[in-house]
Amino acid sequence: MTTLDELPIRDDLRGLTPYGAPQKTVRVALNVNENTHPVPEDVADAITASLAQALRTVNRYPDREFHSLRESLAGYLGRGITPEQVWAANGSNEIIQQILQAFGGPGRSVLGFPPTYSMHSILAAGTGTRWVPGRRDAAYAISPATAVAEIAAHRPDIVFFCAPNNPTGTPLSMETVEAAYDATGGIVMVDEAYAEFAAAGTRTALELLPGRPRLIVTRTMSKAFAFAGARVGYLAADPAIADALRLVRLPYHLSALTQAAAIAAIAHADRMLAMVDEIKVQRDRLLTELPRLGYEPLPSASNFVLFGGIENPQRMFEQLLAEDILVRDVGIPNTLRVTAGTEEETSTFLETLGRIGS
Ligand code: PMP
């Protein structure tokens, strides 16, 4: 059998590990921050009808500029954001990859703030962009002064923020984004994959877009929209950013079926998002109940909770898996990360955790 080492692979990819969240069929899957609520039946019917229609012309390439989808997404975002300011791709992972392809690449660098979403550095590696790990403050916060100091020290071409941050759940102050933007002549990206789970009234980087052509805000339909399997991510930015991404995207990268499904789902945004409040209730339940069981959850503005105080996370992961419950060991010592599921899933997780102890 040939091993990877024997192939003439790029030197800078040798020894790297791929994204590897375990995919297992379990009773309670709370490991990849999905929305565990299924798509409502009537919305599924509307999506099926939209797909059926799109299938009739699937002999033709899809709308390469996905005009209708961009209109739908702009309407969903509101705040005066126009379709020209919106760009979409197969998950926000692909959006981030396109940003790195257009603004990063060999000889360029991206500053991120670990611990953060693991794909940020993996996509940097895949595009030959040097990943520079920046320093965070206490409790995983990033103050404006810290962001500015890290930018001054490393002079990156791109700065990645994640708000709220995965895997810690930490919110990000918009003053930090403003200060970082002023401190760099490069691109500033704010990954807002979990924005819909923040408390009402929480500021978003979308507010900062006017007058900041180098700022990009990425979002996804994978989390709040319960659409992870359909692979739809998007961004809002100056229209010139979409022009840059047109240079690197594959022609027709968003299939006609993806576009049709997403447009139908967004037309029912209120129904798709109906579960967000319920998920926030379950997240808050985790934040209240975990300390009662002797663990230390971090504050979270997202649909997951990172909790500490675990003597042996690997053992606890295995014990939970033995009970058919999948959580995530993100490699931060003495912690595990759990997604807020349905009320029943969250109860099962908490009861099991109480039973097995640390
Ligand atoms: N950003 C963050 C912070 C995430 O946690 C995730 C998914 N885990 C993504 C982006 C990617 O999501 P998708 O590609 O499904 O849009």
Question: Care to describe what's here?
Answer:
- InterPro entries: Aminotrans_II_pyridoxalP_BS, Aminotransferase_I/II_large, HisP_aminotrans, PyrdxlP-dep_Trfase, PyrdxlP-dep_Trfase_major, PyrdxlP-dep_Trfase_small.
- Pfam families: Aminotran_1_2.
- It catalyses: L-histidinol phosphate + 2-oxoglutarate = 3-(imidazol-4-yl)-2-oxopropyl phosphate + L-glutamate.
- Pathway: Amino-acid biosynthesis; L-histidine biosynthesis; L-histidine from 5-phospho-alpha-D-ribose 1-diphosphate: step 7/9.
- The chain has two domains: 101 residues, Alpha-Beta Complex (Aspartate Aminotransferase, domain 1); 206 residues, Type I PLP-dependent aspartate aminotransferase-like (Major domain) (Aspartate Aminotransferase, domain 2, 3-Layer(aba) Sandwich).
- The N and C termini lie far apart (41 Å).
- α1 packs antiparallel against α8 and α3 crosses α4.
- It contains twelve helices and twelve strands.
- The strands form three sheets. Strands 2-8-7-6-5-3-4 form a seven-stranded mixed sheet, with helices on both faces. A three-stranded antiparallel sheet has the order 9-10-12, with helices on one face.
- α4 links the parallel β3 and β4.
- The radius of gyration is 21 Å and the shape is globular.
- By secondary structure, the protein is an alpha/beta fold.
- 37% of the residues lie in helices and 13% in strands.
- The chain binds 4'-deoxy-4'-aminopyridoxal-5'-phosphate (PMP).
- 4'-deoxy-4'-aminopyridoxal-5'-phosphate binds next to α3.
- The site of 4'-deoxy-4'-aminopyridoxal-5'-phosphate (PMP) has 13 residues, from α3.
